[in-house]
Amino acid sequence: MLGLSLPSRGARRRRRRRLRRLLRQRQISTLWAPTYQPERYEKCLCFRASTHKRNTKWFVVNISNRDDDNDNDNDWTKKLRLSPISRTKCDSDSSLVCVDSTIYRLGGFYRAPKCYNNRPTKDVLCLDASSPSPRWKSIVSMNVRRTCPTTVVVNGKLYVMGGNSIRNPAEDTETDRWAEVFDPHTKKWSFLPKPPDDLLPSGENLVMCLGLEDLHKIMVTPYNSSKQAYLYDISQNIWTSKHHVDLCDHRFVSRVDNKDTAVFGNTLYWYDKNYRSVNAYEWETGNLLSGKLKGLGTAGWKMEDIRVQKDIYLFHLSGKLFCLVWNEELSSTVHCSKFVVDTSCYSHDNCNGSLCAWVLSSQDYYLGHNTTLYDAALM
């Protein structure tokens, strides 16, 4: 057998690893669920990450399938190293939101040099991520100083609520100044009407806020209530009477934020890391559906790693397709899984039904040494 040589031991190990990865991907697409071909979509993820020197790095990741690629067939097994599109000083007290390709930073603290008495700011900065050389620029400031306000985008407008706590000047803490809206086209801020008294919590004004675009409304839930919600009617510019959210024995609000919650149509979706399940609440009918998210384990991650995470981000991509983002504590790696939610395969059991949810593909992103994810947004 002249001219032939056996592959080295290292080459054989690499081949076995590739075969195992392909097998895991095949298990995700065949064992867990039927074949699903997602619609074409163009989406990006924006990551804001913190370094050990208290600086901020900004990343943008294209997760579109606008080409001929299929989410089921992509080789999502290699960790991709990302390069930041921008670097700024620490601004973790500002809110992050995206409109199309523009990233907005709202509020936060103004940190003067050699000054330990940080003062809230009303500044708003934006960055066009589609620009060849993106740079931050200041735009029209908010009417009120805010720190970590709750922000939601509906019909291209930015609705900002809360964040004007007792640390702000007295004129900024009036209840009729609790919420305001920004129109990027007219570049003007305007106040929303005074919300119901029960909606205004004490302290930091923490609420969960979700935009129901099909209804032209915004749902706002106080941090201390799991079965009460208020609706702001955008077209009529009024707050409606509170809506009782009947979720039986399930808690609708598991945290005082809306990071792990997404909206598609009139249905609210969220991921429960304790039960490893995807939940869907149909706003008009009041039906609650729930089902295990299958395939995360076969993607190579331990379910315990997901359960202990403080923040998990859920985004709606297109149709039945969603995206789950999280990172391990003090880790520079961000995990991203695209998964399908099918609510048509449920069967009612008392007040709860069941749904099917399975992972299509997964991807790891490396942010750099001593860099951890702070928050994320969908573009």
UniProtKB/TrEMBL annotation:
Record-linked Pfam families: Kelch_FKB95
Source species: Camellia sinensis var. sinensis (China tea)
SUPFAM superfamilies given in the database record: Kelch motif
Protein's UniProt name: FKB95-like N-terminal Kelch domain-containing protein
Domain FKB95-like N-terminal Kelch: 58-338
InterPro entries (alphabetical): F-box/kelch-repeat_ARATH, Kelch-typ_b-propeller, Kelch_FKB95
Entry's transmembrane regions: none
